[in-house]
Amino acid sequence: MYAQGLIGADGKTEETDAFLAAFQARIDAEEKIEPNDPMPEGYRRTLVRQIGQHAHSEIVGMLPEGNWVTRAPSLRRKVALLAKVQDEGGHGLYLYAAAETLGVSREEMTEQLLDGRAKYSSIFNYPTQTWADIGAIGWLVDGAAIMNQIPLCRCSYGPYARAMIRVCKEESFHQRQGYEIMMTLAQGTEDQREMAQDALNRWWWPSLMMFGPSDKDSVNSDQSMKWKIKRFTNDELRQKFIDATVPQAEKIGLTVPDPDLTWNEAKGGYDHGPIDWSEFKRVLKGEGPMNRDRIRARQKAWDDGAWVREAARAHAAKRQPAALAAE
Ligand SMILES: [Fe+2]
Ligand SMILES: [Fe+2]
């Protein structure tokens, strides 16, 4: 039993051993935690950080691909890309709404993104140089996102888990449209094949970095696994992604840019070469090729939207006396 009526998220609940044990018992019993349930402040904060970061990634992720909407090579490609970029915007909105159930406002989250306190996935700090990059992003970046997000459908926090179910369905369409672009290019002219290979060369390693630092260097992993926010470690997910993706590259005649990649019969998976974590850290710190542009674009959108927020506030203020009078 846990203390009914105590709202952990208000910061006033005393986190006694009994409270923490009762909370852990609910998690262990695979019960979903809902917004008004008592929860440890650390659990709430971890989720706010993770869901906020996830929401920002969806929104910032619209930028590199949006860059190609006007230059898609056919009407069919343009329609598919437009739909995909819109989906990502929708994912961002679900996720901001899920984070808001934990007592943080969308304004606060946006301010944290703009002043650098909140992060988004570093993968979006790389530029999209050719049309093949749109294929590589769908195939690899959305493919990696699916590996991360399928276990999140079983996350212990109800609103996040439910949002992920729909998001994952859409991500699998993104992955397929990306792979189909790569397949078409790989079967095209020599120049097109080279373009596809070049995109794979540039996006492969950053995609592996999307799973985060190696388990031995991952600071938040253990507690998140215990709380069933995470179900697999970073390295486990990265391994699943590599094992699923390497045969897909082979099938379309492209080469994964890792000379150390070898099939390991004993573990039933691939061994891969070393990941350049210094690059990961550099990009995370803001030194990637596109960090400044991405934040500048989000800042502009926020500034351009000031009149909408102002109008919404004025409208709400006008309605308030009428609503009170009607009571
Ligand atoms: Fe998405
Ligand atoms: Fe996606």
UniProtKB/TrEMBL annotation:
GO biological process: phenylacetate catabolic process
A cellular component term, taken from the record's GO annotations: cytosol
Coiled-coil regions listed in the entry: none
InterPro entries (UniProt xref): Aromatic_CoA_ox/epox (IPR052703), Ferritin-like (IPR012347), Ferritin-like_SF (IPR009078), PaaA (IPR011881), PaaA_PaaC (IPR007814)
Gene3D superfamilies: 1.20.1260.10
Keyword Oxidoreductase listed: yes
Pfam families: PaaA_PaaC
Keywords: Oxidoreductase
EC numbers, comma separated: 1.14.13.149
Keyword Oxidoreductase: yes
Protein name per the record: 1,2-phenylacetyl-CoA epoxidase subunit A
Organism placement in taxonomy: Bacteria, Pseudomonadati, Pseudomonadota, Alphaproteobacteria, Rhodobacterales
SUPFAM superfamilies, A to Z: Ferritin-like
GO molecular function: phenylacetyl-CoA 1,2-epoxidase activity
